[in-house]
């Protein structure tokens, strides 16, 4: 039985799609017990973006293999607009079997909020995380964004913030947009303003995503799937509506799925984030993942310094001087408090 390598491009829980990137020809695969058990504290040992070894599937009875090595049945599974594998009863080739997950360059995990200490690997081997936010529908919550950013920093994945739905804000929100840019560009993050309606900022985002793998993340309804569609109108990720009752998203995307962009690069669409448990961090460590605090923190009189009550704290001085934004500092204090509460 031959073994080869591929990348996980879709995770549907019990089954997966693999492709030998950069070639885009997804084929089905399953996990067998052994790999599943190997993952230590993770509830999801195989994630989108994982490089895996697999055993080729066997063709179903009576079908002659031909052509593509990925589809031994000789019937290349139909791809609905390059994205999804559409199963077709009889001619379905038996799935490949994932035998090993190769070491990850990086990964993003979501910790369950129920304190079970179980981690869920969201995606692996990412070149960047595109964090989509919106000032309206749904209204942004800065501490939630900061929590996502901290998680990216912990895992060494460069976050880029996309302020989407810019077409909605107008004069009324001009100040809020400026404020947002002041806070996050001030902290050292790249912020791109986009609109899927007018196309503003989409070229810039496409250029950014044209190399490597970009994970699109953020709250439900901010427009992650819409942005992917705007980057490549040939793709067809499911796009939802905003609930009229709650002015929020409806958790339309339910799976992690990779898409190839016509202009180069791969994007991973993901379900909207809900509660976002912090990864295991010591109290003294948290501020290291706020780049602006890390920069000035060396100047604190005490090490380690929690930047709360200590005299001679350079971070508090920077907050007083307006160098570090009070919003970011408050998010930091919130995380400290929560961390203490959970221990
Ligand atoms: N006005 C405006 N509406 C947008 C924009 N981008 C997305 N929307 C709308 O926002 C709603 C939600 O979009 P989705 O792309 O499904 O959002 P999502 O982030 O993928 O949501 P989940 O899959 O639920 O996590 C849809 O009604 C979109 O049409 C934008 O730039 N401007
Ligand atoms: Mg979506
Ligand atoms: Zn300090």
Q: Would you kindly provide a brief summary of this structure?
A:
With 343 residues, the chain is an alpha/beta fold. The chain is built from eight helices and 15 strands. The longest helix has 17 residues, at 326-342.
Description:
- With 343 residues, the chain is an alpha/beta fold.
- It folds into 3 domains: 3-101, OB fold (Dihydrolipoamide Acetyltransferase, E2P), CATH 2.40.50; 126-269, Rossmann fold, CATH 3.40.50; 287-342, Ribonucleotide Reductase Protein R1, domain 1 (Orthogonal Bundle), CATH 1.10.40.
- The protein is 23% helix and 22% strand.
- It has helices spanning 33-38, 142-154, 174-186, 202-209, 224-231, 291-297, 314-320, 326-342, and strands at residues 3-11, 15-19, 27-31, 51-55, 79-80, 84-85, 96-101, 107-111, 119-124, 128-133, 159-163, 190-193, 213-217, 256-260, 266-269.
- The strands form 3 sheets. It has a 5-stranded mixed barrel.
- α2 (142-154) packs across α8.
- Mean pLDDT is 85; it is low at 62-91.
- Residues 164-165, 167-168, 195-197, 220-226, 239-242, 249-253, 271-272 line the site of guanosine-5'-triphosphate.
């Amino acid at each position: 039985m031959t073994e080869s390598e591929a990348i996980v491009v879709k995770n549907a829980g019990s089954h997966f799609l693999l492709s030998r990137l950069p070639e885009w020809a997804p084929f089905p695969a399953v996990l067998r017990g052994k790999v599943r058990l190997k993952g230590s504290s993770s509830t999801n040992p195989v994630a989108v973006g994982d490089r895996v070894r697999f055993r080729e599937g066997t063709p179903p009875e009576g079908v002659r293999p031909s052509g593509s090595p990925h589809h031994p049945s000789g019937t290349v599974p139909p791809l609905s607009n390059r994205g999804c594998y559409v199963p077709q009863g009889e001619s379905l080739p038996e799935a490949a079997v994932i035998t090993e997950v190769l070491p990850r360059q990086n990964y993003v995990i979501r910790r369950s909020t129920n304190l079970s200490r179980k981690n869920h690997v969201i995606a692996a081997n990412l070149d960047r995380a595109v964090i989509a936010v919106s000032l309206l529908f749904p209204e942004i919550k800065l501490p939630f964004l900061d929590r996502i950013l901290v998680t990216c920093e912990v895992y060494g994945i460069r976050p880029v913030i996309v302020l989407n739905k810019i077409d909605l804000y107008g004069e009324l929100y001009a100040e809020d947009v400026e404020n947002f840019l002041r806070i996050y560009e001030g902290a050292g993050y790249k912020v791109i303003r986009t609109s899927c309606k007018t196309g503003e900022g989409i070229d810039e985002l496409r250029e950014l995503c044209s190399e490597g793998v970009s994970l699109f993340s953020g709250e439900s309804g901010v427009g992650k799937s819409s942005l992917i569609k705007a980057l490549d109108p040939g793709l067809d990720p499911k796009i939802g509506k905003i609930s009229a009752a709650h002015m929020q998203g409806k958790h339309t995307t339910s799976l992690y799925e990779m898409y190839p962009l016509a202009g180069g690069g791969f994007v991973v669409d993901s379900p909207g984030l809900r509660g976002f448990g912090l990864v295991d961090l010591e109290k003294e460590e948290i501020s290291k993942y706020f780049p602006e605090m890390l920069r000035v923190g060396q100047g604190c009189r005490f090490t380690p310094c929690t930047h709360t009550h200590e005299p001679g704290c350079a971070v508090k001085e920077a907050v007083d001087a307006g160098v570090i934004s009070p919003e970011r500092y408050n998010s930091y204090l919130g995380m400290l408090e929560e961390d203490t509460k959970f221990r």
